[in-house]
Amino acid sequence: MSWFALDTWIVLVGSACAVACALPGSFLVLRGMSLMGDAISHAVLPGLALAFLLTGSRASLPMFLGAAAIGILTAVLTQWIRRWGRLESGASMGIVFTTLFALGLILIVRGADRVDLDPSCVLYGALEFTPLDTVSVPGVGVPVPRALVVLASVALFNLLVLAAFFKEFRITSFDPEMADTLGIRSGLFHYLLMILTAVTVVAAFEAVGSVIVIALLIVPAATAHLLTDRLVPLLVLASLLGIASAGLGHLLAITVPPLFGFADTSTAGMMAAATGLLFLATWILAPRHGLLARRYRGRHREAAGPGSAEDPFHRGA
Amino acid sequence: MTGVVGPPPAALSPALENLLRVLALLDYNTRLVVLTTALLGLASGLVGTFLLLRRRSLMGDALSHATLPGVGLAFLLAVAAGSSGKSLPVLLLGAAVTGLLGTLLVLLIRNHSRLKDDAAMGIVLGVSFGVGIAVLGVAQDAGGSAAGLEGFIYGKTASLVRSDLFLLAGTAFLVLACVLALRKEFTLLCFDEAFGSARGFPARRLDALLLTLATLVTIAGLQAVGLILVVAFLILPAAAARFWTHRVGPMLGLAAGIGALSGWSGASVSALFGRLPAGAVIVLAASCFFTVSLFFGRARGLAYRWYQHRLFERKMDRQHFLRAAYECLEGCYGRDHRGGLPPNRPLPVRTLRANRGWSEAEWRRMLRQARREDHLERVDRGHLLLSEAGYGEAARVVRNHRLWELFLMKHAAIAASHVHRDADAVEHLLSPEMVDELERELDRRDIPGSPHPLPTAGAEARADPPALPR
């Protein structure tokens, strides 16, 4: 194994993606809408196809706008079907994204004469090739991958929006009724979060592919949720876990397959797998909400008799 | 001569003939595709119904992504064992193994951590998708013949073969048999798991069986419509059926029917128009069924609920108008005309509308409705006269209202001055049976007088202190 500047850039791009995803992702997990990232990443297909058919180019901006518009549409339609059709949010999400995905496939196939849009390329992304597409940033000596600039800006944008409305996001996530009585419009912030999610997913999607986005959005946040009960540590931990997954994932991608005699494999896929490994370790070992801790406490409580032990779910009550 | 008779009739017939051929299932390939997708629709409609009722609709999504590493690993193992790696049963077996593992993992995370269903499904989905892509990346280097593996993601509906049909027929038969045999148990699992466990039903095993059936349908469907679109098949028919009925049995039948119908119509349309991906067309057909059901479903559809709401609003308007008129009659002419009833004479509109917060538009709407329902005899020179039917209905409405007021005062110990508001909220919902019961309970056959002063009873009633019954 040998490590080049290229590998550093890949890990940096992955880390920027991890931070950009962890911020809205933590709120998605808290709100019970973990699968929104998956839904949006599939649903944007018609947006990409339409943008391409209308402008005839694969320039990033029209594609980004088309996908972001469809991403927001997905969130709005999901909310409508859930509210007016009285279906659970999972079902309404599934209805919207599968329908949009089917529409996208048809658009791509019908326009295939003019479209050079490979659906598999859209789905898999190409994290490995991001260092080849560089731009020069003033103040930095070396050319920087475009994906890194895009993802770092998205992360910064998410951070700014969340910091500006932190109080509102926190209260609408934990107690929407309370927020409404305080005059904070929970619906508005729901849609704002959805817009953040859509923009993040689409930007990351365009830069590094959807595989990694779906995992980085949810898994680090869920892992951090096992480690802390407070919101700010949750956000920080989720970002750090995401960055760790990016590094570990790339390391695994270039070391594991050679052990079995294969060439290296998809870094994006391995980063997603790394988030899974970190989750597994945390799930077993976490100090308070981990499997071992729960098991130990269960024994302890049985030995001490009912009512004497600390109940993990009602500590504050 | 014959050359000028116009365009030869054969100009239209190829398209028409094509249509007939497709609809009559004359082509072997069309017949195969239509049958296969219809069977898939039937099976996924049945399983999807229970998944929807258990709020696990996106389980299919997590599951179908979890099959991906299995496909790649099975391919790698097969190559390592020396075969070409493209043997379908081996790949499907791999998919089934990791699919079931994914299901198990979702259940474990959900039951043994503080994370909820959606996060558990998200974790399994995201990670197994990543692992799948990584394994497929390795497989691509390994064999070189792995190109067809992506067919699992997009499906290959147009090139289904006979063995696919047999696979789906077997799956559909198994699902149908399980659902028919265990309908009661699955229903109990969906609606009251705790009660089921308490009664000794093996809830966990039933849950596992249900998810196994879902896995089977997903894997069989991967071939027909692809990884992402099989998710749609598990959700759309069941969600569409939900708008037509409140009962599980009919919902199962409807979901299976809608699923089969979407499979049939989608496959037919894609056979008619070349270059349409069949899987996507089938999903769009199912989406159309869903949209129609969302609006026009007989049990929960938007149009139906809107109509019910309108009916109820009209009933409320009618009852408010008639009770106001009756109370006004009592206030103007007293209630000693014939056995406790006020006489039906012309009423001054101004007295009627005094103390009621009706806007001009509301008042006109009520008048229009009363006229349409023959509750009004005439309106002229600021006076209004109820018809015989209107008078009778008014007496009935007032009686229900006051019976409920007396009941509240007697049994709920609510003060007479507060009882009106509560009765106002309930009176529109009183069924004839409940009124009978109230009559028996209170032992009243007549129309009781109002227990509190009436707002339209005139100036003298408001000037006097209210006479509370003791």
Radius of gyration of chain B (CA) equals 34 Å
* Relative helix content of chain B: 55-70%
| N-to-C SSE string of chain A, H for helix and E for strand | HHHHHHEEHHHHHHHH
Shape of chain A: globular
Description:
Chain A has one domain: ABC transporter involved in vitamin B12 uptake, BtuC (Orthogonal Bundle), CATH 1.10.3470.10. In chain A, helix 2 runs parallel beside helix 5. Helix content of chain A is 74%, strand content 1%. A two-stranded antiparallel sheet of chain A has the order 1-2. With 317 residues, chain A is mainly alpha-helical. Chain B is an all-alpha fold. Chain B is elongated and about 105 Å long. The N terminus and C terminus of chain B are likely disordered. Classes of the chains: A mainly alpha (317), B mainly alpha (470). Chains A and B meet through helix 2, helix 5, helix 6, helix 11 and helix 13 of A and helix 5, helix 11 and helix 13 of B.
Short note summarizing the structure:
The complex is a heterodimer of chains A (317) and B (470). Chain A has 317 residues and is mostly helical.
Layout of strands and helices, then pairs:
The complex is a heterodimer of chains A (317) and B (470).
Chain A: H1 5-30, H2 36-43, H3 45-55, H4 60-84, H5 89-110, H6 119-124, E1 134-135, E2 144-145, H7 146-164, H8 166-174, H9 176-181, H10 186-208, H11 210-225, H12 231-259, H13 267-285, H14 291-304
Antiparallel strand pairs in A: 1-2
Chain B: H1 13-23, H2 28-53, H3 59-80, H4 88-111, H5 117-142, H6 151-154, H7 162-181, H8 183-191, H9 193-198, H10 203-225, H11 229-242, H12 248-272, H13 278-296, H14 302-333, E1 347-348, H15 349-353, H16 360-372, E2 376-380, E3 383-386, H17 388-411, H18 419-426, H19 432-442, H20 459-463
Antiparallel strand pairs in B: 1-3, 2-3
Helix pairs in contact in B: 2-7, 2-10, 2-11, 2-12, 3-4, 3-5, 3-10, 3-11, 4-5, 4-10, 7-10, 10-11, 11-12, 11-13, 12-13, 14-16, 14-17, 17-18, 17-19
